[in-house]
Amino acid sequence: MNKLKNKVAIITGANSGIGLATAKLFLKEGAKVVISGRRPDALAEATKDLDGDFITVTADVSKPEDNKHLIEKAVEKYGAIDILYLNAGIAKPTPTTDISEGHYEETFNINVKGPILAVKEALPHINDAGTILFTNSVVHQRGFDGMAVYSASKGALRAYSRVLASEVKGRGIRVNSIAPGPIETPIYGKMELTNDGLEELEKGFAAQVPLARFGTSEEVANAALFLASDDASYINGVELEVDGGLSQI
Ligand code: NAD
Prior knowledge:
- The protein is of the alpha/beta class.
- The chain is 41% helix and 17% strand.
- It has helices spanning 17-28, 40-47, 64-78, 101-122, 148-167, 195-208, 217-228, and strands at 8-11, 32-37, 54-58, 81-86, 126-135, 174-180, 239-242.
- It has a seven-stranded parallel beta sheet with strand order 3-2-1-4-5-6-7, sandwiched between helices.
- Helix 4 runs parallel beside helix 5.
- The longest helix is centred in the middle third of the chain and has 22 residues, at 101-122.
- It is globular and about 45 Å long.
- The two termini are 34 Å apart.
- Bound molecules: nicotinamide-adenine-dinucleotide.
- Residues 12-13, 15-19, 37-38, 60-62, 87-91, 110, 135, 137, 180, 182-183, 185-187, 190 line the site of nicotinamide-adenine-dinucleotide.
């Protein structure tokens, strides 16, 4: 119940899916949570029944000034940060022949630039022995049709996280990533696919998973709690797959 007692955690993309499940679990485990999302209405709706010590901050992670604002609000309320969980992300399947500059920029601005700028803003305020977590994906470990730019963005984030882990090691800050496989969240409804296309994609993913199903947001949140807590005190620089075996078997 108290694995994160009095720890201050920031979670981006926390009004939905994996981020929201993690915010709920972190609150249950005694953390003070800064719940961030891009849309104020969605943020208000998602948090209206939550119990615990939390604030909400509206921030579009693709905007430098919003990352600054997010960290300022967190520090203003709670003083310092113990856990920075950069989870917000988008995935819009697009065949390589259809990739546009706009698709590339939108994906990289949210999935790569956002977390990198948030870390830069947050680092001076992260307590020594704190922890930074990213939601990555198994997509950059294998080739999934239509996922070129998304996979490239998650691969870039993985490479970045290794360098970050090295640069902050002197402060005892652990940097880890979670690589979900297919997880049942609203992200699939935002992919701009037809119903048939979406069904085909979902069936295809589930069929490839050794456990033969989608995972749940709560299963990913459990991994986030583990990596953020002292249970993972000697785990650093890894990417933990939460994927029913998809990436390995
Ligand atoms: P989701 O759509 O439910 O959640 C994504 C969150 O990111 C939402 O809260 C959304 O508002 C937020 N977001 C998107 N753009 C933003 C922006 N510009 N600024 C601030 N917030 C923004 O989907 P999810 O599946 O919970 O996704 C969370 C993370 O998990 C993402 O990084 C995604 O790439 C990753 N992931 C998901 C799956 C899956 O199958 N669901 C698999 C692998 C990785």
